[in-house]
Amino acid sequence: MRRATATAVIGLLIGVAACGIDPDSGPRVVPPDQRGQLDAAEQGAGQTAGESRVFLLVEDENGRVLRSVLRDVPAQPPEVLQSLIGGPNDTEIADGLQTALPVDVEVRSARQVAGIVNVDLSPQILELQSNALQLAVAQIVFTLGELNGVDAVRLRVDGQNREWQDGRGDLQNDALTVYDFAGYAESAQPAYPPVPSETVP
């Protein structure tokens, strides 16, 4: 009985293998309607790539909000900050992305100690007006908050502590977190379809 079962299983496997798709002998053109998501993997010129994220600004119906974009830089505070200060690339500019950070601001240091990144910036950051300064600080906090193990960001200028406005406009002299700028970033949550209502006869 067991021998008959084994023979039947082997026969079934051979039959399934015979029905499989034959491998191509070489490259072939895939028709457009059969490509699925293949095109999504192609990297065009100027397209964003990488595993690190920085937060830029984009206009929506409520004003300017933060949007994350990928960057091909090491996931370390100095590198991601330099990439953030570099601003949007040409493709992102065409898509309406911008930055509040001055291009001439310098990162004097950016060191992570436990869950806090201590950032020392040059005085150009203080040339921004109130609203732009809030957005620039939010960009820095959200960008560094994406790094593993980072809970908060302490900002200094020329090595000196100072107070910074949070998202509510309150002055804070402690380390800032993304929760201090609630509602500043676009939600990554997809929009849910409306709940269908019952049809009234």
Description of the molecule:
The protein has 201 residues and is α+β, with helices and mostly antiparallel strands. It has a domain at 52-181. Helices cover 23% and strands 21% of the residues. It has four helices and eight strands; from the N terminus they run αββααββαββββ. It has helices spanning 2-18, 77-85, 90-94, 130-145; strands at residues 52-60, 63-71, 107-113, 116-121, 152-157, 160-161, 164-165, 171-172. The strands form three sheets. It has a four-stranded mixed β-sheet with strand order 3-4-5-6. Strands 1-2 form a two-stranded antiparallel sheet. Strands 7-8 form a two-stranded antiparallel sheet. Helix 2 packs antiparallel against helix 4. The termini are far apart. Residues 16-47 have low confidence and may be disordered.
Helices and strands: which structural class? alpha+beta
What spatial order of strands do you see in the largest sheet?
A: 3-4-5-6
Task: Give the averaged pLDDT, no decimals.
Answer: 79
Outline, from the CA principal axes? globular
Percent helix range = 10-25%
List keywords for this structure.
201 residues, single chain, two-stranded antiparallel ribbon
A few lines on this structure:
23% of the residues lie in helices and 21% in strands.
Spell out the blueprint of helices and strands:
Blueprint: H1 2-18, E1 52-60, E2 63-71, H2 77-85, H3 90-94, E3 107-113, E4 116-121, H4 130-145, E5 152-157, E6 160-161, E7 164-165, E8 171-172
Parallel strand pairs: 4-5
Antiparallel strand pairs: 1-2, 3-4, 5-6, 7-8
Helix pairs in contact: 2-4
